[in-house]
Amino acid sequence: MKLDAKTKVVVTGGAGFLGRHIVAALQKRDVSPLVPRTREVDFRNWEQTRAYIAAQRPQLVIHAAWTGGGIGFMRNHPGTIARDNLLMNTHVLEACREHGVDKFVGIGSVCAYPKFTEVPFKEEDLWLGYPEETNAAYGIAKKMMLVQTQSYRQQYGFNGIYLLPVNLYGPRDNFDLESSHVIPALIRKCV
Predict the structure, then answer these.
(1) What is the DSSP letter of 118?
(2) What is the DSSP string of 29-70?
(3) If DSSP codes are grouped into helix, strand and coil, which group holds residue 98?
(4) Backbone angles phi and psi of 158, in degrees to 5
(5) What's the CA gap between 113 and 132, in Å, rounded?
(6) Taking Cα atoms as reference points, which of 144, 164, 152, 33 lies closest to residue 95?
(7) Are 34 and 8 in contact (CB under 8 A)?
(8) DSSP letters of 120-175?
(9) Local mean pLDDT, 10-residue blocks, the chain (191 residues)
């Protein structure tokens, strides 16, 4: 897919930590992506998601929206995390298929890998076991997006891919000790 100033792109979660970096990278390529906020469209809601994608008619959707946080947040809110992520993934993917989006890019998580995985991780290791328990609700919801994307390609010929980045950290990260991930929490504690 060719990206230029005319390409209509939606980045769900585009105001979040990873999403802001995706948006900045697109802007460097003269692409001005739409970055819907929750107050505009709640991707956990099917009708709102469907209406948004129908109205915007994007060519490319990069799905980086998520519900999650650090280990403490994951441990205390597994039901919310499982529900929210499964709903967002399903609604965004189906709305993209239904409205003829040219390309869907789903952002997964390293939390999808089994708890006991040799380092460095390999793609073929993804299905060799259950994720670390505190991240399981999130990791399995994200892994399901991979299955959904592959299933949509198989049944509908839908052009979707699933990217699985590993431990992200850097500028504009969350350093709150209650909700941050491991690396920012360690940096904060050291400082």
Answers:
(1) P
(2) TT---B---TTT--TTSHHHHHHHHHHH--SEEEE------S
(3) helix
(4) -70, 135
(5) 8
(6) 152
(7) yes
(8) SP-GGGTTSSPPPGGGHHHHHHHHHHHHHHHHHHHHH---EEEE-------TT---
(9) 93 92 96 96 98 98 92 91 98 98 96 92 94 95 97 98 82 68 72 79
**Both structure tokens of 82:** 């499982």
What does the block give as tokens for 20? 């802001």
CA dihedral 173, 178, 184, 188 (to 10 degrees): 110
Q: Give the pLDDT score at 165.
A: 87
- How many other CB atoms are found less than 10 A from the CB of residue 16? 18
**Token pair 């519900």 is at which residue?**
67
Any catalytic annotation for residue 52? no
- Look at the alpha carbons of 36, 183, 82, 163 in this order and tell me if their dihedral is positive or negative: positive
Q: Which helix (H) or strand (E) holds 184?
A: helix 182-190
Q: Which of 52, 113, 130, 138 is catalytic?
A: 138
Q: How far apart are CA 184 and CA 176, in angstroms?
A: 8
**Strand-pair partners of 162:** 106
